[in-house]
Amino acid sequence: MSEGHEHTGHENVPSRQRRRFPGISSRAYEHPADRSALVALRKLSGFDTVFKALSGLLPERSLRLLFLSDSVRVSDQQFAHLNDMLRDACYILDLEKVPPMYVNQDPVPNAMCIGLDEPIIVVTTGLVELLDEEEMRAVVGHEVGHALSGHSVYRTILLFLTTLAVRVAWIPLGNIAIMAIVTALREWFRKSELSADRAGLLVGQDLQSSMRGLMKLAGGHHLHEMNVDAFLKQAEEYEAGGDLRDSVLKILNVLPRSHPFTTVRAAELKKWAESRDYQRIMDGHYPRRDEDKDASVTDSFRESASHYATHVKSSKDPLMKLVTDIAGGAGDLGGRVRRGFGGFTSAPPKDEPGRDDTGEGGTGADGTANS
Questions:
Q1: Residue 143 catalytic?
Q2: Could you report the per-residue pLDDT of 147-177, keeping only the tens digit for each?
Q3: Among candidates 69, 22, 80, which has minimal Cα distance to 289?
Q4: Global pTM value
């Protein structure tokens, strides 16, 4: 437990010391893609109108009554070990008001932070049964990170609009307008998950536990059959493998999802855990909440733009490499597109003149050249 907390309740909760981050701002752990996606969402035509309308119409009171009546509220008397984790996570991230947490009967492992005026955290029984203490601690920290960042408002609207889109699917133009906003919200929410994963690591302060939790979300209870390095290797293969057709399929696969793929989340979190930014936070150097009003919006935009530029340049994805070459003025752009969309091959024709082995393709996870 964190310093200043006494262990009362669950015997398996470790009593080791954890660093606390007084006054920490969510800016300390927010992924640059999270911020830029939220800016893009707010600029979407019609979003402000929908947001203002739904903020007054959404039945938040009904939502709270629903969980109160049909789920188990975490407390000192119920799921006491989760209550300890929740309070500890709020103490570490210095979230003054502890949000209510509910355990909902659902075999599918899941957790969410929702609510407009005040956040509510909900975890399913499937998740509670799947994870051990340290893995669950990272998940609780993840949801508290959502609360600290104010993500619950947009998550609630996303849930409502997703349901509404199904109900008005028969209205030709109405569904198109709603789905445009839903798609933008999903894009932002996927990025926000990367931020919340970082918050979970700050709370748990155990990278291996965070990795195990993500692996279990992908492969279930069979942790003894899985390997962290092999799991991360999948993320490399996913990003680098295939041709332009696969790049398009990746985009289509992720569009309906609210969360990024677990291998991608694991790779992103490991990269951040090994960064100087993470170490500075652990050393006590991080932006404070009382400085948020003075934070430069321009600097945030610049950081997000720099992140995307670096991501595109370093990406092994064929589509990202094509974008880089377009920006840099590639010579044989037409030939590369024909190979990508026409032949659907990952390797160029052997008789292509002027081919430089170090030039176009890069290498995939298995060492083969990619178009």
A1: yes
A2: 998 888 878 877 777 766 555 554 454 556 6
A3: 22
A4: 0.70
Among candidate residues 143, 193, 239, 268, the one labeled active-site is 143
Between CA 263 and CA 241 the distance in angstroms is 14
The answer to whether the beta carbons of residues 30 and 149 sit under 8 Å apart is yes
Average pLDDT on 106-128 reads 92
Mean local confidence (pLDDT), 212-221:
94
Higher pLDDT, 17 or 82: 82
